[in-house]
């Protein structure tokens, strides 16, 4: 049941409007829809700095998680690029990780669309076979998934290195309010970022929905010296602690749940890259010289466009949709960030896990309503609002 006053619904709707803008992407410099600086790419970058591996986060998936890590290559075997709900290629033509950015010529609204109705939850969408190796099944493989993690390090001014650990899942199952589920999407990119100065970890950022939370490195839970991150059931939002986490602040209607389920160690299987943000050059690390590069520059979405009104899978209540757009990839997660948070300007680095940081309250004041069309991406904005 909805314990909502009319005012709350109205406020939530307004807030959701803004959230909608944020869902697709974030503040910060938006990379151009290029295809990378191929001419300047040498075969490989250097080896990954040892500290990027030594301090790589462990991820606790949820114990009852059914949407497990996904393999980006396998994802392409079950999706077709669409523009305006229309396939761009025949159903027999598959895209590849080494040739995906050619789709950028169709603009940013290309959606890698699932062959299967996600409601049928096919095995590839669930990532069934990517369940990490559990403890007790061979010491060296514990935590390994057949789905590669993506580790990208970038060197910045003043001997700062930012390491980004990206986690891909083929499906995001949204949470429920009063029996209504919101926020499903095909394709799901989450990440943790660790900032190093002179090779020493300083701070860590956990991505959660359209934002996330940062902590001083010393504040977070560790296994050995490695930080621990908890992936919420269904949404895969990252948290520093197990338990229940309310979001859609300040209304506290939707909650994520995390616990000490299967441990995923992305260092056991990953594509590793060095990224030169200034020149837009991604190079495979010499540790994984065969890691594909081109997919990184794809500027479209890694899942279906939100289903249209009238589609039996779609509903909207107070501005919240059952199905939303698939997300953009790692390149569009503000890798050039100066602050450790993905959304800069509102970044609070907490000094303890229990610190209640000042949550910036988002209002629509000062927001001019621009970008809605761009981010909503729907042919008819009015139709969507009905
Ligand atoms: C930069 O960091 C590296 C460790 O990554 C360290 O060996 C080196 O001394 C640092 N350079 C400066 C100028 O502090």
From TrEMBL:
The keyword Signal applies. Residues 1-23 form the signal peptide. The keyword tRNA processing does not apply. InterPro entries: Vps62 (IPR009291). Keywords: Signal. It comes from the Eukaryota. PANTHER family: DUF946 FAMILY PROTEIN, VACUOLAR PROTEIN SORTING-ASSOCIATED PROTEIN 62. This is (Perigord truffle) hypothetical protein. The lineage of its organism: Eukaryota, Fungi, Dikarya, Ascomycota, Pezizomycotina.
């Amino acid at each position: 049941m909805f314990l909502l006053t009319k005012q709350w619904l109205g406020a939530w709707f307004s807030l959701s409007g803004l959230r909608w803008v944020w869902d697709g992407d974030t503040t910060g410099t938006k990379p151009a829809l290029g295809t990378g600086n191929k001419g300047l790419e040498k075969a490989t970058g250097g080896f990954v700095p040892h500290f990027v591996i030594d301090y790589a986060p462990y991820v606790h998936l949820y114990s009852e998680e059914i949407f497990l890590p996904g393999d980006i290559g396998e994802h392409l075997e079950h999706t077709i690029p669409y523009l305006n709900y229309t396939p761009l290629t025949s159903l027999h033509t598959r895209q590849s990780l080494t040739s995906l950015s050619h789709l950028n010529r169709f603009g940013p609204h290309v959606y890698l669309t699932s062959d299967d109705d996600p409601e049928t939850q096919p095995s590839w969408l669930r990532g069934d076979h990517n369940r990490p190796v559990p403890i007790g099944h061979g010491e060296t493989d514990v935590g390994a998934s057949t789905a590669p993690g993506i580790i990208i390090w970038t060197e910045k001014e003043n001997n700062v290195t930012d390491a980004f650990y990206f986690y891909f899942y083929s499906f995001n199952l949204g949470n429920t309010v009063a029996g209504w589920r919101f926020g499903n999407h095909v394709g799901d990119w989450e990440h943790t970022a660790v900032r190093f100065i002179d090779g020493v970890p300083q701070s860590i950022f956990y991505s959660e929905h359209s934002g996330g939370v940062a902590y001083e490195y010393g504040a977070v839970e560790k296994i050995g010296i490695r930080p621990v991150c908890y992936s919420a059931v269904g949404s895969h939002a990252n948290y520093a602690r197990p338990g229940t986490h309310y979001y859609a602040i300040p209304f506290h209607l939707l909650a994520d749940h995390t616990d000490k389920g299967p441990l995923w160690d992305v260092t056991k299987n990953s594509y590793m890259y060095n990224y030169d943000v200034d020149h837009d050059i991604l190079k495979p690390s010499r540790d994984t010289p065969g890691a594909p590069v081109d997919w990184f520059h794809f500027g479209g979405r890694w899942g279906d466009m939100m289903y249209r009104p009238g589609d039996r899978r779609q509903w909207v209540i107070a501005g919240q949709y059952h199905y939303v757009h698939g997300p953009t990839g790692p390149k569009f997660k503000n890798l050039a960030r100066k602050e450790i948070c993905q959304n800069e300007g509102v970044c609070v680095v907490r000094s303890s896990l229990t610190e209640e940081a000042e949550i910036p309250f988002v209002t629509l004041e000062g927001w001019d309503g621009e970008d809605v069309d761009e981010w909503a991406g729907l042919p008819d904005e009015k139709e969507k609002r009905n």
